[in-house]
Write a structure and sequence with these properties.
CATH topology: Rossmann fold
Radius of gyration: 19 Å
Helix content: 40-55%
Strand order of the largest sheet: 3-2-1-4-5-6-7-8
Number of domains: 1
Strand content: 5-15%
Distance between the termini: 44 Å
Largest sheet: 8 strands, mixed
Number of helices: 12
CATH superfamily: NAD(P)-binding Rossmann-like Domain
CATH architecture: 3-Layer(aba) Sandwich
């Protein structure tokens, strides 16, 4: 049974079929996003916000009264103007970042600290499914960097510089866009951690799932470190929004693009619908004071035991810090 479960995301076809099946499986919602769930006077940073899910989340945040900072590699300024038009809010800003590049992430952290802090909410949304292994400017693998290490680095920089707001406005929330594919790997591959290893499209979903396992493990460990004892200083959440009709499969072979567009349009959720559980975590008082939670769609679930294993969390944190020392980013 475990092997069958772990094969659900081994390749793009299995991942698509699993996503469709999960959407039609009956889920028990843990709550609902209400019109009264507002983010007035809250400052939010969201990465990967120029298209797809991130764009829909940014629009929803602005509609609910938040000051929204869209951290993006492209779409500046037209995507920010589109969010303003759709949301009816002028309190929307865009900042450039290339999450493949550590220097760009460091520059983003400086800009956030100097121009927009303090923050009430941080949403780590950006993700990529690469058709093959590609090196970043620092020589790391692109999916590993964008889907995991960039988040670790950015949050560390935010914490070190004291960018989060504390006090009467409530507890800061950090939300990771994860995936149920984090359950797929049999174990964390420590031997290849941080090492560039070429791969082709057939292995892309396997790498994606492994990176989402790293991300979910980091989220759980982050909550543990930020909230010692029974004190909640930060609320750390992770969510799988389900399969989204987005452009994430753009690097698949072009011959399959018409079929994928049809499948995505017929069976996958629109970015607007997929954004609902993220907005729920961001705005609902249901999560006030919680140190950690994980949602699949609108249903509460436990994360995979590999991600909640304290030894994995400690090891991941230590190895991530050691890797970053090689690049002198702090």
């Amino acid at each position: 049974m475990a092997d069958k479960k772990q094969s659900r995301y081994n390749n793009p076809v299995q991942a698509i079929l699993t996503g469709i099946r999960d959407l039609f499986r009956k889920q028990k919602a843990s709550g609902e996003l209400k019109p009264t769930d507002r983010l007035d006077n809250k400052t939010v940073v969201i990465d990967g916000a120029s298209s797809g899910l991130g764009f829909a989340i940014a629009t929803g945040l602005a509609q609910r009264g938040a000051k929204v900072i869209m951290a993006c590699r492209s779409g500046i300024p037209e995507k920010g103007e589109a969010v303003k038009m759709l949301s009816g809010s002028e309190n929307v800003h865009m900042v450039h970042v290339d999450l493949r590049d550590m220097n760009s992430i460091r520059n983003l952290a400086i800009i956030i600290h100097e121009k927009f802090a303090p923050l009430d909410l941080l949403i780590l949304n950006a993700g990529v499914v690469s058709g093959q292994g590609r090196k970043t400017p620092q020589g790391l693998e692109e999916m590993f960097m964008v889907n995991y290490l960039a988040k670790f680095l950015f949050i560390k920089l935010m914490l070190v510089s004291g960018c989060f707001r504390h006090g009467e406005s409530g507890i800061p929330r950090i939300i990771f866009i994860s995936s149920e594919s984090h359950r797929n790997p049999k174990e964390i591959n420590w031997d290849s951690f941080g090492k560039f290893e070429p791969y082709s499209m057939g292995k892309s979903m396997e790498h994606y799932g492994h990176n989402k396992l790293l991300l979910t493990t980091f989220a759980f460990e982050l909550s543990h470190r930020l909230n010692p004892g029974r004190t909640t200083n930060y609320s750390v959440f992770a969510v799988c929004p389900g399969p989204v009709n987005s452009n994430i499969a753009r690097e698949s072979p072009k011959i399959f693009h018409p079929l994928l567009r049809l499948i995505f349009r017929l069976f996958f959720r629109s970015p607007g619908k997929a954004a609902i559980p993220v907005l729920y975590l961001a705005a609902s008082p249901d999560f006030e004071g919680k140190s950690f939670d994980y949602l699949f769609l609108m249903s509460r679930k436990t994360i995979d035991e590999k991600a909640s294993d304290p030894s994995n969390g400690k090891k991941l944190w230590a190895m991530s810090e050691e890797l970053l020392k090689n690049f002198s980013v702090f």
